[in-house]
Amino acid sequence: MGTDDRDPLTGARIAARLPALDLDRARRFYSGKLGLEPVDERPGGLLYRCGAAEFAVFRSTGGSPGTFTQMAFEVDDIEAVVSELRRRGVVLEDVDVPGLRTRDGIAEIEGNYPGKGAEGERGAWFRDSEGNLLGIGQPRMTEHRKDPDPTGAYVELPGVRTWYETDGAGDPLVLLHGGLCTNETWGAQRADLADRFRLFLPERRGHGHTADVDGPLTYEDMARDTIDLLETLVDGPAHLVGWSDGGIVALLVAIARPDLVHKVVAMSANFLPAPQSSAAPQMLDAVAPDAPDLAVFREPYESVSPDGPAHWPVVVGKLVDMFRTEPTLSPEDLARISAPTLVLAGDDDLVTLEHTIALYRAIPRSELAVVPGTSHTLPFEKPGEVNRLILDFLTRDPVPTMLPVRRAPGGAVAGGGPA
After folding, report:
1. How far apart are CA 178 and CA 248, in angstroms?
2. Nearest CA to 204 among 182, 188, 187?
3. How far is CA 28 from CA 38, 81, 84, in A?
4. What confidence category does residue 79 fall into, taking pLDDT thresholds of 50, 70 and 90?
5. How does the average pLDDT of the chain come out, rounded?
6. What SS3 state is found at 268?
7. pLDDT tens digits, residue range 356-413?
8. pLDDT at 66
9. Where are the alpha helices (DSSP H) in 257-311?
10. What is the pLDDT of residues 223-261, one digit of tens each?
11. Strand pairing class (197-203; 261-267)
12. Residue 56: what pLDDT?
């Protein structure tokens, strides 16, 4: 059930079910013609996954094929997809009804798609081997969505004049980059998330286009800036997705202002300083502003910072001091987070797995995901898997589990014993 009992299907997960008289024949069609392989297989059916959506092809003993579209694939380039399907032998259906006429297999569909920021759709249809009518759709995006402002803008916040960028359409989502980083680090996530959400990407004080401030840098000040940005730019609560330092800021915002937060994704985040949470605390002793390993952070900073390249060593020094002494959150602090939270990490993360599990256990409505074969930079290393986990968490309600322990009614929860 969704979050609003008056609209019980608002948060429901949509999954198509397609009948097949011959399951083996259907498998050959979806594999050979569409290039799709099942992610799960049972005697009575096949389960496929496309992006964050799923559909099942199940064995049926009869029934006529669909007259209306039974499932549709949303694509970015319908001409290319139609061309490739034809090359594979897929036959497109001509659909001619009042207000819709197919030309060369593709129809122009008028209509408003506000959730996607689209002004209409282009569509094509074909049947699978079992007679099910399948569609392909490409939303015709408004000019704003086609060409998001690549230069961003500044907003005057009480603490610091802050650079931010926007993208996409839909529910608001704030992306919070890591320490020493700029918004460039979201390059592998931005497009996928912008397809579903209205993105806000601030660069925090001392990072990217946003100037440094007098005095030390602190997570609390960065969280206050983020709260001010939410109140100034976002009309209502938002999802927060933060990586590393950005994940820490997201946790602090969720503690301080639960009214401004829908869901939280805290990726490779710690709640105690590096000496108490890092798998390699000695790395801080080796951090030098001109070190070759920091070039990936130094060069974007030097190219856009209003403080100029000469200020880079100052910012590095401030951040290293912050890493040594902050954050200092207790399990009791984390237990105040009421927003559903995904704790996400690499299996070889800079933050120890033990610390990550402690974070997960301390937050009451949390879920845990550890991405195999990744490190602290998991959004770069396996972006497809990371994006899928984020989208799945943000767009779906939790599924009921058969043998809950931590989540069982009256069971062990954060602050109430082992979990």
Report:
1. 9
2. 182
3. 11, 19, 17
4. confident
5. 86
6. coil
7. 999 999 999 999 999 999 999 999 999 999 999 999 999 999 999 999 999 888 765 4
8. 62
9. 274-277, 295-304
10. 999 999 999 999 789 999 999 999 999 999 999 999 999
11. unpaired
12. 80
More confident residue, 132 or 120: 132
Token pair for 264: 């939280």
User: Could you give the CA distance from residue 319 to residue 323 in angstroms, rounded to a whole number?
Assistant: 6
Tokens 């004049």, located at residue = 161
SS3 content of the chain, % helix, strand, coil (to 5): 35, 25, 40
CA atoms within 13 A on the CB side of 270: 26
For 402, which DSSP code? S
Banded model confidence at residue 350, pLDDT cuts 50, 70, 90: very high
9 or 248, higher pLDDT: 248
User: Whats the size of the chain, residue-wise?
Assistant: 419
Q: What is the pTM of this model?
A: 0.66
Residue 291: DSSP 8-state: -
The Cα–Cα gap between 104 and 276 comes to: 63
User: How many other C-beta atoms can be found within 10 angstroms of the C-beta atom of residue 405?
Assistant: 10
User: Secondary structure of the chain in the HEC alphabet?
Assistant: CCCCCCCCCCCCCCEEEEEECCHHHHHHHHHHCCCCCCCEEECCEEEEEECCEEEEEEECCCCCCCCCCCEEEECCCHHHHHHHHHHCCCCEECCCECCECEECCEEEEEEEEHHHCEEEEEEEEEECCCCCEEEEEEEEECHHHHCCCCCCEEEECCCCEEEEEEEECCEEEEEECCCCCCHHHHHHHHHHHHCCEEEEEEECCCCCCCCCCCCCCCHHHHHHHHHHHHHHHCCCCEEEEEECHHHHHHHHHHHHCHHHEEEEEEECCCCCCHHHHECCHHHHHHCCCCCHHHHHHHHHHHHHCCCCHHHHHHHHHHHHHHHHHCCCCCHHHHCCCCCCEEEEEECCCCECHHHHHHHHHHCCCEEEEEECCCCCCHHHHCHHHHHHHHHHHHHCCCCCCCCCCCCCCCCCCCCCCCC
Name which of 336, 194, 360, 177 is nearest 270 in CA terms: 360
What pLDDT was estimated at residue 101?
A: 65
Q: What is the pLDDT of residue 306?
A: 95
The per-residue pLDDT for 105 is 81
